[in-house]
Amino acid sequence: MQAPELVTLLQGRRVAVLTGAGMSTDSGIPDYRGPDSPPSNPMTIRQFTSDPVFRQRYWARNHVGWRHMDDTLPNAGHRALAALEHSGVVSGVITQNVDLLHTKAGTRNVINLHGTYAEVICLDCGHTMTRAALAEMLEAANPGFAERAEAVGGIAVAPDADAVVGDTSSFTIIDCTECGGMLKPNIVYFGESVPKDRVAHAYTMVDEADTLLVAGSSLTVFSGFRFVRHAAGLGIPVAIINRGRTRGDDLATVKIDTGCSPMLALLSDELPIVMSA
Ligand SMILES: [Zn+2]
Fold first, then answer.
1. CA 170–ligand 1 middle distance (angstroms)
2. Which of 67, 140, 177, 270 has a CA 20 to 30 Å removed from the CA of 230?
3. Measured between alpha carbons, how far is 167 from 40 in angstroms, rounded to an integer?
4. Region 19-26: what's the mean pLDDT?
5. How does DSSP assign 154-221, residue by residue?
6. What is the 3-state secondary structure (H, E, C) of 78-99?
7. 118 contacts 101 by C-beta, under 8 angstroms
8. Which pLDDT value is given to residue 162?
9. How far does residue 121's CA lie from ligand 1's centre (Å)?
10. Given pLDDT bands bounded at 50, 70 and 90, which one contains residue 32?
């Protein structure tokens, strides 16, 4: 595999990276928007807050699914970006993924645009707790539920740590320990906005870079696409590695239609050598 145009565009430049679900498919987390994936019906914040039965089913599935997310390991693409940060090529990563795989791979400067699976927030008082702490409370309230769900099989890890499991009508959910309010994974769902300070931080990362590299995102969602539009507007070149079309293709200087892991591994092999030449 070769990508001379991409290597030429990135060489000698400080690169900010924007990643999406396609980054984590090689770690076994499905990309519901990928060309080979089934159509998805992502949960909206309104469904979550307005429907107690939906919420109960959500937490039952999440109680099983989150530990699979927690066990998921970074792939060669995540490791390549961490190496590129270490060698000074990559200035930081803005990710739309909630899986923490960039952090697990060793990247230090990560903006988790949509939050992470590992934290829970109270929608009423803003109190946060770790997902692991909530897991202990959910297990105490629903002894053996996760084990029984695992035993019947059919567990699929989804991007939001949801998982497919039946028999959820008896599941007991947990409310905020501080105020009794409604708990939610601290993830930005459809219909919610990314916190303003987080967006500003990400814009700054793009502003300070010489190039924006998009890896594994179709840029369908505006929360990611806006950074491509922002970069293009400032004359900062945009490179895109993604399997299939993206909303940003017309704004990209270079577009490589392929999976992330092999291409990023190639970049981490070639770019430090190019830079020191
Ligand atoms: Zn609360």
1. 24
2. 270
3. 22
4. 95
5. -----TTS----S--TTPPP---TTTS--EEEEE--BT-PPPHHHHHHHHHHHHT-SEEEEES----S
6. HHHHHHHHHCCCEEEEEECCCC
7. no
8. 54
9. 8
10. low
SS3 270: helix
Q: What is the mean pLDDT of residues 267-274?
A: 79
Cα(144) to ligand 1 centroid in Å equals: 27
Q: State residue 277's pLDDT score.
A: 39
30's CB contacts (< 8 A; 6+ apart) are 21, 37, 156, 157, 158, 159
Neighbours of 251 (CB within 10 A): 20
Amino acid at 45: I
Distance (Å) from CA 14 to ligand 1 centroid: 41
Annotated catalytic residues are 114
Cβ atoms of 23 and 216 closer than 8 Å? yes
Please state, rounded to an integer, the average pLDDT across all residues of the chain.
89
pLDDT in tens, 52-95: 988 998 898 889 888 888 999 999 999 999 999 999 999 999 99
Distance in angstroms (rounded) separating the CA atoms of residues 201 and 110? 11
CA of 178 to the centre of ligand 1 (A): 5
Cα angle, residue 117 at apex, residues 24 and 110 outer, rounded to 5°: 65
Given 3-state DSSP classes, what are the helix, strand and coil percentages for the chain, each rounded to the nearest 5?
Answer: 45, 15, 40
Query: What pLDDT, in 10s, does the model give residues 185-199?
Result: 999 988 899 999 999
